Amino acid sequence: MKKNIIALAVASAIAAPVAMADAPTVYGQMQLSIDSISYKDTNGDKVQAKSGSQVNSYNSRVGVKGSADLGNGLKAIYKAEFKVNPDSKESFENRNQYVGLSGGFGTVFLGRHDTPYKMAQPKDLFNDARADNKPMTGGLGILGNGGENRVSNVLAYVSPSFGGVKLVGALVPKEDGTGASLGGDTTKESSMTDWISAAAMYGSKKKGLYLTAAMDSASKNALGTTGDATQYRLAAQYAVAGLIANAMYQDVSGDGAKKEGSNIMLNVGYKMGNLMPKIKYSMNDYKDKATKDSTGLGLGLDYALAKKTKVYAEYVSYDKTTYDRKNIGGKASDSAISVGLFHKF
Known about the structure:
It contains 4 helices and 17 strands. 10% of the residues lie in helices and 54% in strands.
């Protein structure tokens, strides 16, 4: 009996490090704020139903991720991340979820993920808040998201770093238009090249120089539109001694785009101890000159309570041009003051 107990103890001691190495990591973040909102329609009249005081959650999430050593430098990787909505009755929404292999050749995975185009952006100082990139781009881009697309059915590859340069590519079939697929023209056959996304990134977002270039190309079959759509992105960032400054340019063309045109977005922040004042400005120039150009402004102040916890105050104002252009001459506007709490775990 004693021998069995000793053998079991030894086996457990040997297996424990292996189990720990393969154990999944649970992670997430919670971000909620009190917002005072003023929403005006295309005539400049305040929309009472969309204005007033609100408690909002901005991309709060929880996830599990991990890897398993397969030997010979090869690992299996996985992630399942969900958006949680503590400000509403809705429960979970799918975010990045995939399984793949990683080794000296790079990383390849299948599932749901941000497009390489979305990945190729500088640090957004207002990320996951009211002045996030998506609303500040005024409906430009494929699917009208300003390049902030996360899609299902992705086959993606991430290269190793070559002298600081990393390449990322993804193929996305539209599939049948049900569930979490792209949709599009459900009468057409699906293809791995329905949506192609590619990007090149140099440097680190945390310090020094960071450069990116990216493109998306989506077919009319994938989008369910009368034409294809293409978008390009160039960005540069420099971070040093508490200062971070970046600029991003986007150009969108093709009948398949929600809105054609270009966008320039600027972010500047300066960390002073626990404080970081920050500013963001966005300019949208539409190809259809009957649609008025739009702008967005974000002003904010972050205060770090700890490494993973902060409070913040932000003022945000941006124009909302109509997607369907029924009110071609006008544009709605949205302004808000937000005071929020962010915690990462």
